[in-house]
Specification:
- This protein has 24 helices and seven strands.
- By secondary structure, it is mainly alpha-helical.
- It folds into two domains: 381 residues, Up-down Bundle (Na+/H+ antiporter like fold); 139 residues, Rossmann fold (3-Layer(aba) Sandwich), CATH 3.40.50.720.
Length: 532
């Protein structure tokens, strides 16, 4: 049966391994990687016969994951992190390549393979991080947006790296190709913004009118994979094209339905990706070069972690965000496999370094869910050890807070709510991420905490456990869900008022235990009807 038999073996083995990992309270994706190791070519026993075919299907998994991510995130969501993404990521790439040169020098390598090592380790794994964030319920937090913004720019940097590195001996050949690649990327993005935002919503509207759920799913899948393939044909990343397609489609009225339909496909093909990662791990090479592998994994993990933490600090992200970014992006990404393969084919690196890069990448991917899950504990430990670094709070009463209102967001809506409560002499504390809004609240004398309310530590600083009311003014469903879930964990009796712009989320809010949901458009229409 060929590929069909391989997929059956993988799914069954992944289910068994995932079940064991779930019982051990470990991330399920580690079970998928374990299934790949068990069925891979390096362990003996039952082996997948068509590894190349599995890897091709795994590419579809990456594309579908990024397409789904694009459906969940709009360009507005990435607005707060554009500086760290567009300016910080190139700086991070340069620093990490420098880290690779330093590691190679200490290991006695020549500069050329050291440079290739630096380029490979400079890229983090979009697939592993997104799956980790989803499993941990952190998707939608500010730290996740910072990481996703960085990863998007990293993915764009893959094409220049693929062109520049093989041309180190003759830059005059590579530079024109690089310039052409940049022009192609700019043309694609411009076409998607100008044409995609007009054509795709109309197309989905016509398909939705047919009333066929199957055709709608096929259309969504065809758009994501079709646009991804189109970008691949012009020399850009398949996954990047799928992500842009998802972001364009998310601005339409059909984004939420498209997301709910694509999730099962995304998860199934995603399993194949993680299994294919496991197949790359050669236990024999690992044991034969154990010292080198351990040194490289530790050097890369700590080095990249420090670079990302420093980067977040430089761009004025505080509280838990630098630690979350460091523990989320320290791994070596899947594009390292692509670069390393090019390095071997051009004889820029030897097979031992190729295997060392692959082994390091796989091990850091395996470590990511385990390490990232310790973010809250490590931050709590840091706060206990370094008490001189308090959470940034302003105007909080020295006597503490009790039976107070916790207000998330100090925008136009939040600022008015805070003003009303202050006028009535009722205790209130605002949680806000925007420095300008924090300064505005400070000027008004309103108690305010600078931080991401979806992080438990920030809610603890707002003394959510003794609060009587939580008001969430942010319209984003992912962030709101995370805030409410964490608040309920600390205070089951708290009353919650939330805001949404989509009536389809009312059932979700009811399930979360929200006492009152406000739909601004509905309230405005009723008021206008009353006055008409």
């Amino acid at each position: 049966m060929g590929i069909a038999t391989d997929i059956i073996f993988l799914v069954v083995t992944a289910f068994g391994c995932g079940l064991v990992l779930q019982r051990l309270k470990q991330p399920v994706i580690l079970g998928y990687i374990a299934a790949g190791i068990i069925l891979g070519p390096h362990t003996g026993g039952v082996t997948v016969s068509n590894i190349q075919e599995i890897e091709k299907l795994a590419e579809i998994g990456v594309a579908l994951l990024l397409f789904a991510l694009g459906l969940e995130f709009s360009l507005k969501d990435l607005e707060p992190v554009k500086k760290v993404a567009l300016i910080g990521t190139p700086l991070q790439l340069v620093l990490t390549i420098g880290l690779g040169l330093g590691i190679g020098s200490l290991m006695g390598w020549e500069w050329r393979p050291s440079l290739w090592l630096g380029a490979c380790i400079s890229l983090s794994s979009t697939m592993v991080l997104l799956k980790t964030l989803m499993n941990q319920g952190w998707l939608g937090t500010l730290s996740s947006k910072v990481m996703i913004g960085i990863l998007i720019v990293q993915d764009l940097a893959v094409v220049p790296l693929m062109i520049i590195l093989p041309q180190l001996n003759d830059p005059s050949v590579g530079l024109p190709i690089l310039g052409f690649a940049i022009l192609k990327a700019a043309a694609f993005i411009a076409a998607m913004v100008l044409l995609g935002t007009k054509l795709l919503p109309r197309l989905m509207g016509h398909i939705a009118k047919l009333g066929s759920r199957e055709l709608f799913l096929l259309a969504v899948t065809a758009i994501g994979l079709g646009i991804g393939y189109a970008t691949h044909m012009v020399g850009l990343s398949f996954a990047f094209g799928a992500f842009v397609a998802g972001m364009v489609l998310s601005e339409s009225d059909y984004g939420h339905q498209a997301l709910s339909d694509i999730i099962p496909l995304r998860d199934l093909f995603g399993l194949l990706f993680f299994a294919s990662v496991g197949m790359l791990l050669d236990p024999r090479f690992l044991f034969d070069h154990l010292e080198e592998v351990v040194v490289l994994v530790l050097a890369v993990s700590f080095g990249k972690g420090l670079i990302f933490a420093a980067l977040a600090k430089v761009f004025r992200y505080g509280n838990v965000i630098p630690l979350a970014v460091a523990l989320g992006l320290f791994q070596v990404g899947e594009f390292a496999f692509v670069l390393a393969t090019i390095g071997v084919s051009t004889k820029s690196i030897d097979h031992d370094l190729y295997s060392l890069i692959l082994t390091t990448a796989v091990l850091t991917m395996i470590l990511t869910p385990l390490v990232s899950s310790q973010t809250a504990r490590l931050y709590a430990l840091k706060k206990r050890l370094f008490k001189h670094e308090p959470l940034e709070t302003l105007n909080l009463p020295q006597t503490g807070l009790n039976q107070h209102l916790v207000l998330v967001g100090n925008g136009r809506v939040g600022a008015r709510i805070a003003s009303v409560f202050m006028d009535f002499g009722l205790p209130v504390v605002v949680v806000e991420l925007d420095h300008r809004r924090v300064e505005h609240a400070q000027a008004e004398g309103i108690p305010v905490i600078y931080g991401d309310a979806s992080q438990e530590l920030v809610l603890e600083a707002a003394e959510i456990g003794t609060a009587r009311l939580l008001v969430v003014t942010t319209p984003d469903i992912v962030t709101t869900r995370s805030i409410i879930t964490n608040a309920k964990r600390h205070n089951t009796a708290i009353q919650i008022v939330a805001r949404t712009s989509d009536a389809s989320f009312l059932a979700v809010f009811k399930e979360l235990g929200v006492n009152s949901v406000v739909l601004p458009e509905l309230e405005a229409s009723l008021e206008m009807a009353r006055k008409s």
